[in-house]
Design goal:
Structural class: alpha+beta
Distance between the termini: 40 Å
Radius of gyration: 20 Å
Order of helices and strands: EHEHEEHEEHEHEHEHHHHH
Strand content: 5-15%
């Protein structure tokens, strides 16, 4: 299934070379850009007839053995709902940068977790690291069971930037995760970012708050005080000078409108950060976040 979200480059010309190919069931062009990759996800997944989904983003590419290794891992762990692998980072020319997601994550979280294959319950994956950051870094590096998409698919309509993290949390809440330390995926890193728009400060904070709300109200998520501190400092705060009072008011109104009780917990923390100039490292390990033996 090939979907094009009204690309402005030569994508259509490349796509048309696959017209009539025996393995291509659909080619669909949007007349206008949807403004969100997650709307494209929904469209493709609803068309898919198989039990497993791979969202192969056009900017990224995979090792030829990626799907074979995924299938092997899943056959060894039939309960798997999400399989993902390590990734190399490449530049815009497709040249490998001396960087692997596993090395970066191991360094940030002071662990060797991503140096080894593992299979674990999804809720343990979340409580260990996935609740602090989207540690399944690249959607192209994973395959997942189609049925895991259904519970949260309509919630993705409001996401523009971080729907992948929201979806992965939602999916992992109901399924085990399997990881391969082999770098079978190549993530293309661009110099410019889609987070530089005028509204990105507001939109990104709104999306982060929705992710926190999902985590905070789930009965099996542990260390919620630590989680609140982490989100308030790293994801939900904003600069009154840099971002302006107008954007600040919009952000706070959204928090209060969406979940008043949770919003006040966050606002008190943001106020303390501003008043007392608090500093906080990105990750503060708790008893629930020890590496797997």
């Amino acid at each position: 299934i090939i979907l094009d979200d009204c690309s402005s480059d030569n994508s259509r010309q490349a796509i048309e070379t696959y017209r009539g190919h025996e393995k291509i069931s659909h080619i669909i062009y949007n007349e206008r850009n949807s403004g969100s990759p997650f709307l494209q996800w929904k469209k493709g997944i609803e068309l898919a007839k198989s039990d497993w989904i791979w969202i192969a983003e056009s900017d990224d590419f995979a090792d030829p053995s990626f799907l074979q290794e995924a299938a092997l891992a899943i056959s060894n762990h039939p309960a798997t709902g999400i399989f993902y692998s390590d990734s190399f980072v490449v530049n815009e020319a497709g040249e490998k940068i001396d960087e692997r997601f596993s090395l970066r994550k191991n360094n940030i979280f002071h662990t060797e977790k991503w140096s080894h294959d593992y299979f674990t319950e999804g809720i343990h994956e979340i409580n260990q690291y996935l609740k602090f950051d989207c540690t399944i870094n690249n959607i192209s590096s994973l395959v997942f069971r189609k049925d895991l998409f259904a519970p949260g698919k309509n919630m993705l309509d409001g996401f523009r930037y971080y729907g992948d993290w929201f979806f992965l949390l939602k999916a992992a809440m109901g399924s085990p995760v399997c990881y391969s330390h082999q770098p079978l995926n190549y993530y293309r890193k661009h110099g410019s970012s889609h987070l530089n728009s005028e509204t990105s400060v507001i939109t990104s904070r709104q999306e982060y708050f929705n992710i926190l709300q999902l985590l905070y109200h789930h009965e099996k998520i542990t260390g919620k005080k630590n989680l609140l501190d982490h989100f308030a400092y790293h994801y939900l705060s904003f600069g009154l000078n840099a971002d302006g009072w107008s954007k600040g008011r919009q952000i706070l109104r959204y928090y209060l409108k969406t979940d008043k009780n949770l919003a006040w917990k966050v606002i008190r923390r943001i106020a303390a950060i501003k008043l007392f100039r608090q500093k906080r490292p990105f990750f503060v390990p708790g008893p629930e976040s020890k590496p797997v033996n």
